[in-house]
Design goal:
Its EC number is 3.1.3.84. It catalyses: ADP-alpha-D-ribose 1''-phosphate + H2O = ADP-D-ribose + phosphate. This is ADP-ribose 1''-phosphate phosphatase. Pfam families: Macro (PF01661). With 190 residues, this protein is of the alpha/beta class. The protein has a single domain, classed as Leucine Aminopeptidase, subunit E, domain 1 (3-Layer(aba) Sandwich). The chain has four helices and seven strands; from the N terminus they run ββααββαβαββ. It has a seven-stranded mixed β-sheet. Helix 1 packs across helix 2 and helix 3 crosses helix 4.
Length: 190
C-alpha cells in the first residue's frame, strides 16, 4: 500500500453509545498524508522538538513548531493535554493539522516515568478528539488521523503499552468508532 492510498475516512461523531478507537498499521511516510489530515505525535511541555520524530516535525512544519514553542513558553502547559495546530496557509506543501500530545513534562533524562506517560496519553488523546469535533463543528476541513508509534522513541515507552492505552479509550456519548492510522517508516523515527 502506498502511503497516500486509501486514506481512512475522517472520524465521525454522534450521540449514541460510547465510541472506541481502532488502530490500523501502515508502513510508509506519515508526512505523505492527504491534505487536512491530522498528524499526531507525543511532545514534552518544555517547547522542544529537538530529537527523533519531533525533529522531523520541526523540519517539515516550522510554523507548527513556532506555534507549539510559543504555546509552551507562554503558559504552564499541563501533561495529559493536547495542542491542535491548524494548517498554516503560508506553508509550502501539504496542509496538515499537527496534534501535539503532551505526554511528558520534560525530555531526555528528565522525562516522566513510563506509567505517567501512559496516563497522560489517554487524557491527551481524549482531548485531541474533542478538539477535532470542535474544529469540524466550525466547518473546518479536518481529515483522517495519522499517528507515529508515539512514546516509543525518545520517551522510551514500549509501543505495545501505548497501544493498549489507545485501544482502551472510550468517549462517552459519541457512538461508533474512530480509526487512527499508525504509520511506521521502519527507521529511527517512531
Amino acid at each position: 500500500m502506498s502511503p497516500t492510498s486509501n486514506p481512512a475516512p475522517p472520524p465521525t461523531f454522534s450521540n449514541a453509545a460510547p465510541q472506541t478507537i481502532s488502530l490500523t498499521h501502515h508502513t510508509g511516510d506519515i508526512f505523505a498524508a492527504p491534505d487536512s489530515s491530522v498528524l499526531i505525535h507525543a511532545c514534552n511541555t518544555k517547547g522542544s522538538w529537538g530529537a527523533g520524530i519531533a525533529l522531523a516535525f520541526k523540519t517539515a512544519y516550522p510554523n507548527a513548531y513556532t506555534a507549539y514553542h510559543t504555546h509552551c513558553i507562554s503558559k504552564s502547559v499541563q501533561t495529559g493535554t493536547c495542542l491542535l495546530i491548524a494548517p498554516c496557509e503560508t506553508d509550502i506543501g501539504p496542509k496538515h493539522w499537527i496534534a501535539c500530545l503532551f505526554t511528558s513534562k520534560a525530555y531526555g533524562r528528565k522525562k516522566d516515568a513510563p506509567e505517567e506517560i501512559l496516563r497522560n496519553t489517554g487524557s491527551a488523546v481524549k482531548e485531541l478528539l474533542v478538539q477535532v469535533m470542535q474544529a469540524r463543528g466550525g466547518e473546518e476541513k479536518v481529515g483522517g488521523l495519522r499517528m507515529c508509534r508515539i512514546n516509543s522513541g525518545k520517551f522510551g515507552v514500549e509501543w505495545e503499552r501505548t497501544k493498549v492505552v489507545l485501544e482502551g479509550i472510550r468517549l462517552e456519548g459519541s457512538g461508533g468508532g474512530i480509526n487512527i492510522e499508525i504509520w511506521d517508516r521502519g527507521d529511527e523515527f517512531v
